[in-house]
Design goal:
With 203 residues, this protein is α/β, with parallel strands linked by helices. It contains nine helices and five strands. The chain is elongated, with a radius of gyration of 24 Å.
């Protein structure tokens, strides 16, 4: 799995950290180790990857870590590790947005499968975030009139209706529409609407 994004392991147990470092490295997954949630939060942030954390740790526990990540807008998926007695905490972690939880002692393949799923989920989320940001930049580059035409197109208005609404000729609407398609790099009207809806879900 070369080129993989990293997994951040947060656990106060040295033996667990070392075991997980070996497990992930053997699967070709880069790993960063942290002995506490505080140390993890102080480390340089990663834009992608996933986080594997114990739910019960001194200082900041896994639940509070999830809350801090959410407050910071960190969207990386989080897998929570828990002992049998801590399942209620793990359920609480899921309510706070954890991607999954794994009970200790866990099977290596079960954890690896969960991490692979989390990395795939995180990658898709990062790609979508990048696509939304790029679409937002393209919309921002439109002129005011082009944005008006885009708004009308998203409302489902045909060219004649757009022309009447904006006080311009249907031919001029066609020119603006072509400009919008070119600037948005949309191959079809359907693609244009899908792109715009990513940025403005409400239309």
């Amino acid at each position: 799995m070369s080129g993989e994004v990293p997994v951040d392991v947060v656990d106060d147990d040295l033996a667990v950290r070392q075991s997980l470092a070996f497990l992930f490295a053997s699967d070709g997954i880069p790993v960063r180790l942290h002995d506490s949630a505080t140390a993890f939060l102080a480390a340089p942030p990663q834009a992608a990857g996933c986080i594997v954390t114990d739910v019960r740790m001194p200082g900041l526990d896994g639940i509070e870590l999830l809350r801090r990540l959410k407050a910071q807008g960190d969207g990386r998926p989080v897998i929570v590790m828990t002992g049998h007695a801590d399942v209620p905490l793990a359920v609480a972690a899921m309510r706070e947005g954890a991607f999954d939880f794994i009970e200790k002692p866990f099977d290596d393949e079960v954890l690896l499968a969960a991490v692979r799923a989390a990395l795939d989920s995180g990658r898709r989320a990062a790609e979508r975030h990048a696509a939304v940001a790029e679409t937002g930049r393209r919309i921002a580059a439109l002129s005011e009139r082009e944005r008006q035409v885009l708004d009308e197109l998203m409302a489902g208005s045909p060219n004649k209706v757009i022309a009447q609404a904006l006080g311009i000729s249907p031919r001029t609407v066609e020119i603006y529409r072509a400009n919008v398609m070119a600037k948005m790099q949309a191959g079809s009207l359907a693609e244009l609407v899908r792109m715009a809806l990513m940025v403005r879900p409400g239309g």
